[in-house]
């Protein structure tokens, strides 16, 4: 029986996997991308991403998509407000329009990358359930429907709970001590004008007592809010999120002495509340070279979101790996060595920065350490 063979297999059509596929395509190298989502619309991608110059923007340049990206940037999205629990505004920055921290809707960015790949590159509804090493660096991959294929190069771009990571490393993500409850206020200018004014046009932090609200105005005019608390790992499981009013009441108990305008972000939330535990891999996670397989993005270096770098790094990893493979067309192992020798110190540095940012946000003196940091950037 003939087994299907893909020279390059990318597991995961996240931002990292898609940038890799696109950069390979730009260099004339084909790839097959497998994702468990039923199709490209299966999940709302949600959230604004701040695309950093040295990582995300560099990746988009390598992918030949920088100009298209600039056309989709959210104007005004670089504004910033930092408040304390009394809703006193302690720091306010307008979007000065210099475009140094361009913001884009995650869904728009993903669409940009998907549209830049040859038809059929991404195989949707294709959950990878197993991958085993064969001789000579090849792997055999199994999908949930029982299909198997072989590949010369297997790249795990499959996020936090990667199926590919165990081929390289026994590490597992651990709970960081921070729990989120995500909320949305739709059509904010019309339906929630006071909250819209409070949050402003871009990024918003209201912090104190080891907790707070991290929010963002989205391109569709909604407000997306992460209520964040330092909490035991099982705290979220004690709340019944199928009963939205009860979940709001449970959450409000943690904000009894917060300003009414901040509590209103919870009481006025539209739709269901979404719980989320924040996990991270150990800072400095790395592995020994294993022939024919590597990782990128969260699969390689899941970190807490507090440095705003995870998606940026995933894209940069994809671009770096694509360029290394293009530069070593007949020697995949050399390409992987070059890629990983830069990946490990880069991820370690940013993961450490993320862990420090977490401590800064959920600090007894918050939001002062955050204000000090933004003020030092300005200086
Ligand atoms: C609340 C929150 C806020 C964040 N904010 C920011 C921010 O502002 N800026 C920023 O840079 N980063 C941010 N991040 C981090 C960012 O979301 C991630 O780092 C980024 O999405 C990682 O991209 P990725 O391509 O590695 O993985 P993912 O985006 O997780 O993509 C993995 C893909 O693999 C697929 N997949 C998984 N398992 C399988 C399987 N077995 N078979 C087939 N397919 C599979 C999934 O369907 C998915 O499409 C945030 C994260 C969180 C949780």
UniProtKB/TrEMBL annotation:
Its cofactor is FAD. NADPH binds at residue 43. InterPro entries: FAD-bd, FAD/NAD-bd_sf, TetX_monooxygenase. Transmembrane segments: none annotated. The keyword Cytoplasm applies. GO terms for molecular function: FAD binding; monooxygenase activity. Pfam families: FAD_binding_3. It catalyses: a tetracycline + NADPH + O2 + H(+) = an 11a-hydroxytetracycline + NADP(+) + H2O. It is found in: Cytoplasm. Keywords: Cytoplasm, FAD, Flavoprotein, Monooxygenase, NADP, Nucleotide-binding, Oxidoreductase. The keyword Secreted does not apply. Residues 7-351 form the FAD-binding domain. GO terms for cellular component: cytoplasm. FAD binds at residues 50, 106, 298. Consists of an N-terminal FAD-binding domain with a Rossman fold and a C-terminal substrate-binding domain. An FAD-requiring monooxygenase active on some tetracycline antibiotic derivatives, which leads to their inactivation. Hydroxylates carbon 11a of tetracycline and some analogs. This is Flavin-dependent monooxygenase.
